[in-house]
Write a structure and sequence with these properties.
With 450 residues, chain A is mostly helical. Helix content of chain A is 64%, strand content 5%. In chain B, 47% of the residues are buried. The chains are: A mainly alpha (450), B alpha/beta (288).
Amino acid sequence: MSDVTQKAPKRSLFAPDARTQKRNRAEKRFQYYGMAAVGVGIFALIVLLTSILGSGLSSFRQTYISFPVDLLAERIDPEGNRNPAEMAAVTTFGYMPLLAMSFQAHLEAEGIEHEMGARELAAMLSDDAPAQIRDRVLANPDLVGTTIDVQILVGGRIDGFFKGRVTMASAERDRNVSPAQLVLAQVLADRGDVVTRFNWDFITAPDASGQRPEAAGLGVAIIGSFYMMLVVLALAPPIGVAASIYLEEFAAKNRFTDLIEVNISNLAAVPSIVFGILGLAVFINFMEFNQSSPLVGGLVLTLMTLPTIIITTRASLRAVPPSIRQAALGLGASRMQSVFHHVLPLAMPGILTGTIIGLAQALGETAPLLLIGMVAFVREYPDLMSTHSNSFPLMGDGATALPVQVYSWTQRADPAFVERASGAIIVLLVFLVVMNAIAILLRRRFERRW
Amino acid sequence: MKDLNEMSQTDQESAVDVLKMQARGVDVFYGAGGRTGSAAGMAADLAADKNVTHAIKGVDVDIADKTVTAFIGPSGCGKSTFLRVLNRMNDTIEGCRVTGKVTLEGEDIYDPNVDPVQLRAKVGMVFQKPNPFPKSIFDNVAYGPRIHGLSSNKADLADIVERSLRRAAIWNEVKDRLDAPGTGLSGGQQQRLCIARAVATSPEVLLMDEPCSSLDPIATAQVEELIDDLRSRYSVVIVTHSMQQAARVSQKTAFFHLGNLVEFGDTDKIFTNPSDPRTESYITGRIG
């Protein structure tokens, strides 16, 4: 005992020595680094969400104005026979004066004072409003000659006034809107004629031209994205999982399979625009599919998604303990039985996660779609079976996609499209969150112990 | 020396023993790559190759019916490798080549016409680490009969499962929770479940690769008792590190050393009066 104390002086457990103190400090420091890193991430996320929600949420609300419209028969049904086919000859330009006159008459009848000319007054209404009235009339010719109460869109700038984007000060400098219009809009809003309410059309309506941001919607883009996801879902998981199972469980390990493996890893890192070029060359130029059709978009996204799916699937197959395979083989199961009865179910959570991550990636991809012509202005909903030329599903109609819609809206001049683009991003994010939630649910559902 | 042993053993016990499996001149090579060729030529070729591990060198063993045969030897001596020769589990290992002749009831199991899947139904295997499927206890046992179509209906299958679990001496512990996951059992129970799973396909030979190495002494005792019971129906081959275990459960013992079969004979004789000095050194703890 005394020998030991002589050789090494007794140290109290309560007083850490210099070495321990240094080590503890290093540990603390590392924890702070970690916290700082997480903090940066959270900060970035908060900034992103506030900026997108701040500028995008308002796109789900739209300002409408209601007043009675006289559907003068002599203007919109010159033949007088209520035949929709002949009434269709009157274009939206024929309806515009009707609205303007009705609006002016409404203001006079209600005794609302203003100092604007007819043109300036009419400019408060959306350019899209005549088209809406026309659609209603053509659908129901009995309306001709009557007076109907309508709720129609106001112009983008007036809408912006109620959302805080346009102010009196900015209206002074703006050629497209005047302070007088804003004053009148405020008066009408106080009377309850102008309301801002939830706008389903933003989600269901097709895109609109650059002069009428208030009417632009995501309907066509959502359907285009949905069709492309159908193609990806039908092709990518079966091909990817089959390839992974073969490579992981059956293929001999030799130079050739090594080469394939390296190439798959490289393909996962290839910029997505390269897949667009590939799609352009193979599907459009060589196989002569219709450009910007959902099928071509889906095929390109499938090619892009495959490496992700293959890599994650192989990783999750590899994570299944070999003892499970041996147990099955030892019982006289064939290799395929051991894979399909035991290995694949155990690898399922990982495979599903990889697949859904791949799909989410495909859903948000823009660059390759630009190259195959999906950036076009599309107002027609694409059909599964086109009525035009091609007989193959998803090949006839041109389509656009959610991220491409975001891209093209950010290109437009009107500031109202900034709000639209942010709104589209919110919709895209909602889809992504839903897909990830499904991934988590499925993983929970399939998770097993071994 | 080896041949002499075998001769004397067969002479003494031929009246009792019915030959189940026979291995003659078995060589196993690892790292052989995709090499093919005539068996005899390949063995010499591979034995000469420095990059190839010669894991088993010309082993001859007879496995008798209704007998427990133990393989003992130091780690890396090839006893597990040789066990896997007997049901062609080595086929699943990349670059492993087996030469020589192994017969099950006179049929060459390495014949090109033999489907290893069918062979493994006849020669069951229990692994070192309990490896129940992450399924219910019932499904674990029922898996083999299902894939081999051994039952005609549900009642029949339930019957097979119960019989197998009884044979593996675990029925009383699990009969009330057949739907519980097999992975939720204790280690010893899991191993007996694996044995039940292996006997459910009615194998003729049961191979056990160190079945007790991850079990506590109580579970080990249970499994050993079980092995003794199983002997009445099956031919059991067990690889073990424990010489006491070999002495307790087996009637025949094979001692492997550096890929060679050093000595093969009656367990009593090997442990009391070994004819090879290496065997004696091993069982007395001097090498290994």
